[in-house]
Amino acid sequence: MEVNYFHLLILICFLINTINAQESLLVVGVATDETDGYKRYVRSLKQNGLEYEILGLGEEWKGGDIKRQAGGGHKVNLLINSLEKYKNDENKVILFTDSYDVIVNDNSEKILSKFKEFSSKIVFGAEGFCWPDETLVDSYPVVADNEKRFLNSGGFIGYASDIYELITREPIKDEDDDQLFYTKMFLNIPTREKFNIRLDTKSEIFQNLNGAVQEVSIFADENGKIELFNNVTKTVPSVVHGNGAAKLDLNRLGNYLANSYSNNDGCVSCKEDTIQLNEEDKNQWPEVTLAIFIEQPTPFLREFFQKITKLNYPKNKISVLIHNNEKYHNLEVEKFFTNHESSSYASIKYLTVTDDSSEQEARRSAVEECLKSDCKFLFSVDSTVHFDNSDALKLLIEQNRSILAPVMKRPGGSWSNVWGAVSSQGFYKRSDDYFDIIDGNILNVWNLPYVSEAFLIKGEVLKKIPVEFNDETMDPTIKFFTTIRNNDFFMYGTNLHEFGHLINPDGFNTSKIRPELFEIFNNFEDWTKRYVHPEYNDYASGKVKPQVPCPDVYWFPIISDEFCEDLITMMEDFGQWSGGRNNKEDSRIPGGYENVPTVDIHMTQVGYQQHWLHFLRKFVQPMQQKIFIGYYSDPPRADLNFVVRYRPDEQDHLTPHHDASMYTMNIALNIPDVDFQGGGVRFVRYDCSVTQTIKGWAMIHPGRLTHYHEGLKVKGGTRYIMVSFIDP
User: DSSP 3-state assignment of 482?
Assistant: First the structure.
């Protein structure tokens, strides 16, 4: 009889495909509580279109405290009950995993394909630690150096009938250890051979992260999907398990995996579970307890309160609690309190310095106030937080996360209010994506291990956790969020929007009469907004041309009224004015002699020389380069920078002279015909005078040769000017 091998081969392939088509994958997990980790797990299953069944929801957990000791037998018994209906089903493939610390990143087709390549009935995940019984190390088969040797029961896959038969061979108590239960079965050679049990030593399906975090990285496939890659075994695992100490590492990877983020679509999970506050019916917006903490001397607190007041949220929905631990800030806080005490906010409570409450006590009081009023959210804001976006609170609420912080940083630096990772001691550690987070290179709602300075937390979360701030070894908020992490709540930081920035309080010296004047280095942007003239940028950009009141004399706005007033206040408070025309000897300058002296105080005397030189470089030099084209000196040098005071009874004018400079800048600090009468400057060669000087405006002119000039007589009041001899 002649055999048609070609047709026989077709028949065999057809039968194989028919059998394969009948196989189906069911993911089975165990979770008694719907924690944030559980919700992430279920989301990952849905994103991959996986059929799943969760065991134990709503039931009492009987498997012991597996965070601190061995246990988990309850999982096995739940699985036994669940698989009884499949005990004779040879085509049902079960993927069993833990739920709270697992992310599945593949669909059923890929997972089944990987499973079949093992040619095994049951495959367990593998790890680098022999736990919970280290004495069993030598009982394990030896594997290659780049492979994991020991069984991990947090994930396994196999045919339902085989798994059922395996786990019903011996009884297990709920409080017994499930990993030891499976380990003994694997190490029993007859059992291992009967079920052809294998370990996924190369992490082809299961990636257990504990002890292996440094071995993995993420990449985007050709469709933009983020995959996990094992750099040691060159595999792309389907199931990622944050076992043991790797739970925070799983949280970090979870910001990308399971279609949380896509290179093509950006942040996918950010658009899920959000809410929309109705602008037409603000009476329905949730109640918020706004807790403000002033725990250290903080520059630009006035602007802080202005921005708090401007938040686009109905004030009758906000109850305010303020804790001020700094006497220096009493006046500013009391001003805010007085302005809003009898109106605007739903309520306002002020814990003053005299109340003698610690930061820990104040933060606990804020939580208690929120719980007492049954608030929907606690919005905790430190005095270092500047909300430049008035929609900040609204945007955070609409994102609808249990705990959410606006990602903010100190301008120009790397300090932010979030951590990307935590060290083994529980303190700051920089993650690989930290700068992507704080600089907004990747936009996401990030699962983070720690947030601070500004955060929104749901009232329902506060009801579920022990509120702990006291710990001598750590900051109160670090203690608080450590407790939150230990209670299985996720905290998030969002950089989807520009919320504002953080103030740098380091070195803020409140012994100065006007301490913000000295913040040009630490808080340049805020310093600029307060102290640079609001019209300066129009001139610096070339949008508006400087005025030219006399030949080669250029006039433009440069400093704010407040700068003028603060500078005068600082000089008068210092009070050591020079002798003026009655004293040409001057030990403050090289050579000790001033040919044309004025009544003045040098910037060096008040500790402001370096600050002023920085000001010259940032604001004067750009204008000089537009005015005197072709002259470039960076940084500009100016040894003599001083405030001059003219009075009729002191020194009322200045005789004609040249300046010891390449060019001179003269800034009017107060107003003619209001603060003083007379005064001004006359350029002798051109017989050109400027008498109606403008407060905060700078006049720039050449210092030598062409611009011989004199200070005109002041007939009443006091005239102040700021003078710099630049590039002598």
Answer: helix
How far, in Å, CA of 246 to CA of 236, rounded?
Answer: 18
| DSSP-derived secondary structure for 144-212 | -TTS--EEEEEEEEEEHHHHHHHHTSS---TTSBHHHHHHHHHHSHHHHHHTTEEEETT-SSEEE-TTT
**Residues 399, 492: Cα–Cα separation, whole Å:** 10
- H, E, C per residue of 560-575: CHHHHHHHHHHHHHHC
How far apart, in whole angstroms, are the C-alpha atoms of residue 205 and residue 530?
58
Q: Compute the CA torsion angle 628, 631, 636, 641 (nearest 10 deg).
A: -40
**Which tokens belong to 231?**
């750099």
**Would you give the distance in Å from CA 697 to the centre of its chain?**
39
Packing angle, helices 73-83 and 160-167, rounded to 10: 130
**Cβ proximity of 241 and 97 under 8 Å:** yes
Distance CA 178, CA 176 (A): 6
The Cα–Cα gap between 312 and 294 comes to 22
307 beta partners = none
Q: Do residues 351 and 323 touch, judged by C-beta distance below 8 A?
A: yes
- The helix/strand/coil state of 262 is strand
What does the pLDDT look like over 525-582, one tens digit per residue?
A: 999 999 999 999 999 999 999 999 999 999 999 999 999 999 999 999 999 999 887 7
Q: What is the pLDDT of residue 7?
A: 55
In a 13 Å sphere around the CA of 482, the CA atoms on its Cβ side amount to 18
Query: Shortest CA distance to 612 belongs to which of 603, 624, 602?
Result: 603
Predicted local confidence at residue 6, as pLDDT: 53
Task: Single out the residue of 28, 194, 200 nearest to residue 118, CA to CA.
Answer: 200
d(CA 485, CA 425): 14
Tokens standing for 637? 């040098």
485-498 pLDDT per residue, tens = 999 999 999 999 99
> How many angstroms separate the CA atoms of 615 and 635, rounded?
11
Query: Kind of pairing, strands 216-220 and 226-230?
Result: antiparallel
**Cβ neighbours, 10 Å, residue 50:** 18
Residue ranges with strand state E in 295-364: 318-324, 347-351
Q: C-alpha distances in angstroms, 204 versus 177, 207, 231, 425, 462?
A: 25, 8, 12, 32, 41
In the prediction, which pLDDT does 18 show?
47
Nearest alpha-carbon partner for 547 in 535, 539, 556, 557: 556
* Residue type, position 386, single letter: H
Domains in the chain (CATH in brackets) are 22-270 (3.90.550.10), 282-502 (3.90.550.10), 515-726 (2.60.120.620)
Residue type at 362?
A: A
Q: How far apart are the first and last CA of the chain?
A: 113
pLDDT of residue 356: 82
- pTM recorded for the entire structure: 0.93
**Which residues in the chain come in under a pLDDT of 70?**
1-21, 342, 593
Rounded (10°) CA dihedral 192, 196, 201, 202: 180
Longest dimension (CA), the chain: 134
Pull the structure tokens for residue 7. 């047709």
Q: 575 burial class (0-12, 13-18, 19+ CB within 10 angstroms)?
A: exposed
CA distance 608 to 406: 35
